[in-house]
């Protein structure tokens, strides 16, 4: 029941593509992440995923198109849809997704984060 | 899979205490609301509720304390906990909560909104 300040939480980490848990409700996690560069193509078979841009912008690539998401905008990627986030410059995002969600979905690799820190 | 721009969505309505649905994922709704004044004491027996402040600030009153929530901060009210939002000046909030959530929880009144608009 304590409030969470996004700026303060983002000041606690600098690594890219490493989501941090900042809240939990109704079986969902609220996560913060800093993205820069290209991620991997992947999908989540059972989870819809929300990306809200707190600072900066990024492009979400789908197989048939690309959507640019800017500050104070969000995008919901439905389960089963292949996607790849690409951030030319660093972008800060807030994620909202089920607690079961793995960052790389079905594309396990060295980028996969199995145990996320709560901050 | 279209993005949602918060400023654009907030420009579409002006009434207070009338949440609008702007997204759905994993059985949860993303809602936007403009708050001003005092709401009613209530609780949600089955739903945790997240309030993220997009613009302005408000106070969440609990029975034993009050938490002020400012821009770029969020608060999760756990299920079963009585709460009352109070906004001295208009505040814009984004809500995450299960699709089953009724705005006034267990305190049905003329403030209750049974059928929310999607915008």
Itemize the secondary structure elements and their pairings:
The structure is a homodimer of 119-residue chains.
Chain A: E1 4-5, H1 6-10, E2 20-25, E3 28-38, E4 49-55, E5 57-61, E6 66-70, E7 73-77, E8 84-98
Antiparallel strand pairs in A: 2-3, 3-8, 4-7, 4-8, 5-6, 5-8
Protein name (chains A, B): Cupin 2 conserved barrel domain protein
Pfam families (chains A, B): Cupin_2
Domain Cupin type-2 (chains A, B): 36-90
Radius of gyration of chain A: 13 Å
Principal-axes geometry of chain A comes out as: globular
- The multimeric state of the shown protein is homodimer
What would CATH call the homologous superfamily of chain A? Jelly Rolls
Protein name (chains A, B): Cupin 2 conserved barrel domain protein
What does this entry look like structurally?
- The structure is a homodimer of 119-residue chains.
- Helices cover 4% and strands 47% of the residues of chain A.
- Chain A has one domain: Jelly Rolls.
- With 119 residues, chain A is mostly beta strands.
- The two termini of chain A are 15 Å apart.
- In chain A, strands 2, 3, 4, 5, 6, 7 and 8 form a 7-stranded antiparallel sheet that branches.
- The first copy, chain A, has one helix at residues 6-10; strands at 4-5, 20-25, 28-38, 49-55, 57-61, 66-70, 73-77, 84-98.
- Chain A has 1 helix and 8 strands, in the order E-H-E-E-E-E-E-E-E.
- At the A-B interface, strand 1, strand 2, strand 4, strand 6 and strand 7 of A face strand 1, strand 2, strand 4, strand 6 and strand 7 of B.
- Strand 1 (4-5) of chain A pairs antiparallel with strand 7 (73-77) of chain B.
């Amino acid at each position: 029941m304590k409030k969470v300040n996004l700026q303060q939480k983002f000041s606690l980490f600098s690594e890219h593509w490493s989501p941090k848990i900042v809240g939990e409700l109704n079986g969902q996690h609220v996560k913060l992440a800093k993205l820069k560069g290209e991620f991997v193509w992947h999908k989540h078979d059972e989870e819809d995923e929300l990306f809200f841009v707190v600072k900066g912008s990024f492009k979400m690539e789908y197989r048939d198109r690309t959507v640019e998401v800017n500050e104070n905008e969000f995008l919901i990627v439905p389960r089963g849809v292949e996607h790849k986030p690409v951030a030319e410059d660093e972008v800060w995002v807030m994620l909202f997704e089920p607690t079961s969600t793995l960052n790389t979905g079905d594309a396990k690799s060295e980028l996969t984060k199995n145990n996320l820190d709560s901050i």
